[in-house]
């Protein structure tokens, strides 16, 4: 390699990661809070490992895995290109001249001279993974490991890659990186804790507080301090990487901020709705949320119909009419355009009825585990950006959220559940947040 490919790694990797950088252990688990730069360290290390083989004229391959293939491009694929650039090499697409060539179908980054390649897969491509003979593998990285279902998913793929180890490597070196879930009984928290002290495992914890090189900017620190003031437990979970536990109440109600009128200096720019339905047995609710220019979220109005105790319950056509009346009244009151109308993905009858009656399409939310969806609501609340108009219609929203609790019998499990009683506005709020993550600045 020429001098232009020299890097001062002490200026790129914080001292807290020395044990990771020098690790000769087969299995390396890196956990920690947001802005700890653990993923950047792994990316740099993987590129460094490959370059040692390239210097000898050898072909060496690295496999990088996410739970779902659709997340690859904006995360690990870009991160590896960044790391290659840090070593002074160029990554190009198409037929341009450069050191490495990047392709997206499939996702690969290949060294032109030796054929050494970074392969990127989602575990949803596992059958394709099993059928591919990559060979000459020196390392495997599971990014955002907490997204995987269980340890067995690692075990299945590990065996596939171990068989294809490079003949000059003592073993395939595995890396995991993740932010610990707040539930201490999450399977990955228990798994990583059980590996502490095992001879073949390095278990490493980091947070933004370990930064000695100035990677955490003043703007980032200000954001961290704001969340620390708003919700200290959430700060510990998000930025210190501590599994702080769930408690009994799902939300900190002090983060639900009442207002009497809209902000003069931060106007509404659009309105979204979110719907949870019950039909014959439980309540149907529609929520109208306003988004401001500064990304504040305001609960504007609530529709709530419960059939409990009623002899003549509303038919789907009447519920459809109720939604349209709510839709029309909200638009006329606030005079802003609608963007997304979200509904429970399990609800087909009302969605179809509304489209039949009024030509309005409601978007079915793609559901994940309840605890994961609730965590996104926590992110919005901890940002201090959620408000509600203090009106009679919105009182049911606040009352239901005050009573919204985890089922204590499930807290010491990998899959804690909420008590599903009087939780309709809670579900609708969850649907709204998770269907608008990017727009709300909660996903990048």
TrEMBL record:
**Which residues does the UniProt record annotate as the domain Phage terminase large subunit N-terminal?**
25-242
Q: Which residues form the Phage terminase large subunit C-terminal domain?
A: 276-435
- Would you say which domain of life the source belongs to? Bacteria
* Name this protein carries in UniProt: Terminase
Q: What is the lineage of its organism?
A: Bacteria, Bacillati, Bacillota, Bacilli, Bacillales
């Amino acid at each position: 390699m020429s001098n232009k490919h020299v890097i001062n790694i002490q200026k790129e990797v914080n001292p807290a990661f020395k044990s990771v950088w020098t690790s000769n252990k087969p299995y390396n688990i890196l956990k920690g809070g947001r802005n700890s730069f653990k993923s950047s360290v792994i990316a740099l290390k993987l590129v460094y490992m490959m370059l040692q083989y390239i210097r000898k004229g050898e072909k060496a391959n690295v496999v990088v895995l996410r739970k779902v293939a659709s997340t690859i491009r904006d995360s690990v694929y870009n991160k590896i290109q960044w790391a290659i650039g840090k070593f002074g090499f160029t990554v190009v697409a198409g037929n341009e001249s450069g050191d490495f060539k990047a392709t997206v179908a499939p996702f690969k980054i290949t060294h032109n001279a030796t054929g050494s390649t970074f392969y990127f897969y989602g575990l949803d491509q596992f059958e394709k993974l099993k059928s591919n003979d990559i060979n000459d593998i020196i390392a495997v990285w599971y990014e955002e490991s907490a997204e995987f279902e269980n340890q067995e998913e690692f075990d299945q793929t590990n065996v596939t890659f171990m068989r294809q180890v490079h003949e000059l490597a003592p073993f395939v070196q595995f890396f995991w990186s993740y932010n610990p879930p707040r539930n201490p009984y999450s399977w990955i928290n228990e798994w990583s804790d059980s590996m502490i002290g095992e001879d073949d495992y390095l278990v490493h914890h980091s947070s933004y507080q370990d930064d000695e090189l100035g990677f955490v900017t003043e703007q980032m620190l200000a954001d961290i301090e704001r969340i620390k003031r708003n919700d200290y437990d959430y700060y510990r979970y998000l930025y210190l990487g501590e599994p702080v536990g769930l408690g009994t109440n799902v939300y900190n109600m002090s983060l639900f901020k009442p207002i009497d009128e809209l902000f003069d200096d931060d106007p509404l720019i659009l309105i979204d709705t979110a719907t949870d339905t019950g039909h014959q047995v439980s309540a149907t609710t529609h929520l109208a949320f306003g988004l401001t220019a500064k990304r504040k979220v305001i609960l504007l109005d609530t529709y709530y119909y419960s059939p409990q105790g009623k002899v003549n319950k509303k038919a789907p056509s009447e519920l459809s009419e109720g939604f349209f009346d709510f839709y029309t009244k909200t638009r006329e009151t606030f005079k802003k355009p609608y963007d997304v109308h979200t509904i429970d993905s399990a609800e087909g009858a009302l969605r179809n009825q509304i489209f039949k009656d009024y030509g309005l399409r409601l978007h079915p939310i793609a559901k994940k585990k309840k605890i994961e969806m609730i965590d996104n609501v926590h992110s919005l609340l901890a940002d201090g950006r959620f408000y509600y108009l203090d009106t009679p219609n919105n009182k049911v929203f606040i009352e239901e959220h005050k009573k919204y609790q985890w089922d204590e019998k499930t807290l010491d499990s990998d899959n804690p559940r909420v008590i599903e009683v009087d939780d309709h506005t809670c579900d609708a709020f969850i649907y709204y947040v998770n269907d608008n993550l990017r727009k709300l600045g909660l996903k990048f």
